[in-house]
């Protein structure tokens, strides 16, 4: 209904902003990602919006990037994922990381977000995997082939008795520092760092 708003940023908080457009102040709920993209208060901005209409309320959500709004709309289309859960997801990790996790079927990454259980994470991936690739295209979403290597290495480390969370942090660091590592390389480097 309301595609975007262009006006003066009057108030800025981590969870909401107020934009004045032609004398009308709009209270808009935002994610921490959008908050990080906003500079100081009292500037002219354009923000993409999503209006949620319920029986007892009308809530306006705002996004600095069109792609974040599209991801938000895809997330709330999943059964059991409401607007506040979707906003929490977009506040917890970067939208691009959410898209990559869904596209590559990384349940652990989706489940690491507060309030997302195993079943919800699986449902999100099942419902949105194809849609993410269709809406954003293969070029927009980087589906890492090394993701399976990461999962295999993580599984091996868990079998060896290491806790999942610390092992995953070490593996993530290795994945960033090493180009296309094999499962063996990941495990060897992880064992040195654990």
From TrEMBL:
Stretches assigned to the Helix-hairpin-helix DNA-binding motif class domain: 73-92, 108-127
Stored InterPro entries: DNA_helicase_Holl-junc_RuvA_I (IPR013849), Hlx-hairpin-Hlx_DNA-bd_motif (IPR003583), NA-bd_OB-fold (IPR012340), RuvA (IPR000085), RuvA_2-like (IPR010994), RuvA_C (IPR011114), RuvA_C_sf (IPR036267)
Region (Domain I): 1-64
Domain of life: Bacteria
GO cellular component: cytoplasm; Holliday junction helicase complex; Holliday junction resolvase complex
Sequence segments annotated as region (Domain III): 146-194
One GO MF term attached to the UniProt entry: four-way junction helicase activity
Subcellular location: Cytoplasm
Chief location category: cytoplasm
SMART domains in the cross-refs: HhH1
Key words of the record: ATP-binding, Cytoplasm, DNA damage, DNA recombination, DNA repair, DNA-binding, Helicase, Hydrolase, Nucleotide-binding
GO biological process terms on file: DNA recombination; DNA repair
Family from the record: Belongs to the RuvA family.
Function recorded in the entry: The RuvA-RuvB-RuvC complex processes Holliday junction (HJ) DNA during genetic recombination and DNA repair, while the RuvA-RuvB complex plays an important role in the rescue of blocked DNA replication forks via replication fork reversal (RFR). RuvA specifically binds to HJ cruciform DNA, conferring on it an open structure. The RuvB hexamer acts as an ATP-dependent pump, pulling dsDNA into and through the RuvAB complex. HJ branch migration allows RuvC to scan DNA until it finds its consensus sequence, where it cleaves and resolves the cruciform DNA.
Quaternary structure annotation from Swiss-Prot or TrEMBL: Homotetramer. Forms an RuvA(8)-RuvB(12)-Holliday junction (HJ) complex. HJ DNA is sandwiched between 2 RuvA tetramers; dsDNA enters through RuvA and exits via RuvB. An RuvB hexamer assembles on each DNA strand where it exits the tetramer. Each RuvB hexamer is contacted by two RuvA subunits (via domain III) on 2 adjacent RuvB subunits; this complex drives branch migration. In the full resolvosome a probable DNA-RuvA(4)-RuvB(12)-RuvC(2) complex forms which resolves the HJ.
Domain comment in the entry: Has three domains with a flexible linker between the domains II and III and assumes an 'L' shape. Domain III is highly mobile and contacts RuvB.
Stored HAMAP family: DNA_HJ_migration_RuvA
Identification of the protein by name: Holliday junction branch migration complex subunit RuvA
Natural source organism: Gillisia limnaea (strain DSM 15749 / LMG 21470 / R-8282)
Protein encoded by which gene: ruvA
